[in-house]
Specification:
Blueprint: E1 5-8, E2 11-14, E3 17-20, E4 25-31, E5 34-39, E6 51-54, E7 60-63, H1 67-70, E8 79-85, E9 88-93, E10 97-101, E11 108-113
Antiparallel strand pairs: 1-2, 2-3, 4-5, 5-6, 6-7, 8-9, 9-10, 10-11
Length: 115
């Protein structure tokens, strides 16, 4: 069953619960009864882990795991894109580094480079 929500700028309303994020929302996709929210981060702002999982009653279930906790990357960046391929959900950054993550808890599962 689809989760009903509305979004405008940095606000997401789910089941009459309003969530106000620090930055505007770029994408919202529903996967496995979770809304995956990717925030749009301005170039001059340092804000990492900009992906959140929201449940059907408007609670933040998780924030995506920090890339540096799992992978030895230099220059971590905010995520720019959100892709759903079947049951797999990925985020990628400006450098084309792509990360598969668990939509139940936000844990990173694997990494590769796309271009």
């Amino acid at each position: 069953m689809a989760i009903t929500f509305t979004q405008f700028a940095n606000e997401l309303v789910v089941n009459q619960t309003k969530i106000v994020f620090d930055h505007n929302i770029r994408y919202v996709k529903e996967v496995d009864e979770t809304l995956i929210v990717l925030l749009e981060i301005p170039n001059n702002v340092t804000y990492l882990n900009n992906v959140f999982g929201i449940n059907e009653i408007g609670e933040i279930k998780w924030r995506i795991q920090s890339v540096s906790d799992v992978f030895p990357l230099k220059n971590p960046l905010p995520f720019e894109n959100l892709m759903v391929k079947g049951t797999d959900v990925y985020v990628s950054d400006f450098y084309g580094r792509r990360f598969l993550f668990n939509t139940t808890n936000g844990k990173l599962l694997s990494s590769d480079v796309i271009r």
